[in-house]
Amino acid sequence: MLSPISAAAGHLLISEPFMMDPNFKRSVIILTEYTEDGAMGFILNHQSDYLLGDVLPDVSYSEIAVYQGGPVAKNTLHFIHCAPHKIDDGIEIAKGLYWGGDFEQVKQLVSNYQLGPGEIKFFAGYSGWTPQQLDEEIKEDSWIVADKFDVASLFNLDEQELWKHVVVNLGQRYAHIANFPENPALN
């Protein structure tokens, strides 16, 4: 088994380097829920073709990217942030990382240019697992679990660099896979 760490809310899931499922290829997911009823999280590094203004036309600062949170309920909008001093009612899922909060407050802060991409990330849809499904996928080495990470990197690194950065930061045991080609047949 690749991952000696158990899944939990606030942990990252890093896809194995050759995962071919286009929904999760080279993905980094933040788990927001992990219970006996299943798990939920958001893909941090798959940017969609949409900007915030495309999905919320009443928000004036529209250049913030919207990410593909996962293949479930793509018509819903979610967010994580590292700005609890600006956004009320967020749930702390990891040290310095919050899920959700007062959405009207968020819209106002974004419209007034008081909240930007380095502090908040929006997602269309989410990733979800039924009871025991994620545990089975981890046993099958589809995912590596990380419980230590730099919160700022989740907001500031681009899509391709985030996966590599998180893998390298797992330590020497994993660092070599950061340079594996996406398609091993091309090696």
Would you give an account of this structure?
The chain is α+β, with helices and mostly antiparallel strands and 187 residues long. Helices cover 21% and strands 31% of the residues. Strands 1, 2, 3, 4, 5, 6, 7, 8, 9 and 10 form a 10-stranded mixed beta sheet that branches. It starts with 11 loop residues before the first strand and ends in a 12-residue tail after the last helix. The model has no long low-confidence stretch (mean pLDDT 91). It comes from Mucilaginibacter oryzae. One of its GO terms (cellular component) is cytosol. Pfam families: DUF179 (PF02622). This is Putative transcriptional regulator.
How would you sum up this structure in a few lines?
With 187 residues, the chain is α+β, with helices and mostly antiparallel strands.
CATH class label:
Alpha Beta
The gross shape turns out to be globular
Number of helices: 6
**CATH topology heading:** VC0467-like
Number of strands: 10
In terms of structural class, how would the helical and strand content be classed? alpha+beta
For CATH, the homologous superfamily is named as: VC0467-like
Number of domains: 1
On the 0 to 100 scale, the average pLDDT is 91
